[in-house]
Amino acid sequence: MTWGVLLMAYGSARGPEDVRRYYTHIRHGHPPTEEQLNDLLARYEAIGGVSPLFEITQRQGEALQAELSRRHGASAFRVYLGMKHSSPFIGEAIEAMRRDGVARAIGLVLAPHYSSMSIGTYLEEAETAIARDPKPFELRPIRSWADAPGLIELLKNRILEVRARFSQKERDNLPIIFSAHSLPQRILSMNDPYPGELRLTGDLVAQALGTTNYTFSWQSAGRTREPWMGPDILDKLSRMAEAGYQQAVICPAGFVSDHLEVLYDIDVQAQEQAAALGMHIERTRSLNDDPAFIHLLADLVEARAQ
Question: Which residues are recorded as binding Fe-coproporphyrin III (predicted)?
Fold first, then answer.
């Protein structure tokens, strides 16, 4: 019997003309103001006009399908893409599975750290779509892979690659900043595992590197009235400059793909902040469709199918 694999990601605007719809969907039907829309369009323009996230997710899905077929044959697994905020939506992927006669599936979100406000909402949406059918099929979720050995190895190697760009003198005092998307601060009173999972990933990567010179920050907080977790990465850079640091490696461990939060919030905003502070910062490459990352995803799917 074929396993369906529901590979879920955030989704993205397909171009400037889609930005209003996309952010209206993110904001639960509330359109952005013209000021907010113009700011968003300027951010997209700064990274080339469009986020590459959807195309990267497509490549990840195709590569995962190819790897699973290589390991188990063409009929053992079938990968379906489901996006949270753009087509194909998670519900559309579930409908495609149902039409294809899928009787069991594995749910994998392209984010390693579980939160009830992030991965939890993807899985809830999938379960809700499945439950609409009189004969719902089984969905086995992969809730977290924050400590997956393959992830730790990939991030370790990405950091080693970036370290080589610094002089030997700079490397002698080169801190690593592990970052992830901020969430509303109220999750801290909910015993949500998200902050601890980011720390677990960072601790394991630092241990693999044999360093104690690392720290954590959050980024890309939403523009809402409630407080979000900090420190923000821009504030973190300011504090580090005040402490005498002149260089740093940024490892956005909470993100696996290039998208606006990486290409703008780090490569534009954080770089501008660093330049103003007289700091030299470098970012680790995103995992995207690196074959080693695809192998990791296939390993996760295989283990959940047992």
Answer: 10, 27, 43-44, 51, 122
| Distance between CA atoms of residues 151 and 108, nearest Å | 15
Contact 183, 147 (CB under 8 A): no
Do residues 290 and 60 touch, judged by C-beta distance below 8 A? no
pLDDT at residue 224 in the model: 86
249 φ, ψ to 5°?
-105, 130
- Numbered residues of the known binding site for Fe-coproporphyrin III: 10, 27, 43-44, 51, 122
| Model confidence pLDDT, tens digit, residues 48-84 | 999 999 999 999 999 999 999 999 999 999 999 999 9
Under 8 Å between Cβ of 284 and 158: yes
Q: Are 254 and 115 in contact (CB under 8 A)?
A: no
Q: Show the low-confidence residues of the chain (pLDDT under 70).
A: none
Annotated binding site: 10, 27, 43-44, 51, 122, 181, 261
Q: Are 146 and 183 in contact (CB under 8 A)?
A: no
Annotated binding site for Fe(2+): 181, 261
Beta carbons within 8 Å of 43's beta carbon, 6+ residues apart = 260, 264, 268
Amino acid in position 16: P
Q: Tell how strand 247-251 and strand 176-181 pair up.
A: parallel
**Structure confidence by residue, pLDDT tens digits, 26-55:** 999 999 999 999 999 999 999 999 999 999
The domains found in the chain, sorted by start residue, are 3-145+289-305 (3.40.50.1400), 149-283 (3.40.50.1400)
Mean pLDDT of the chain: 97
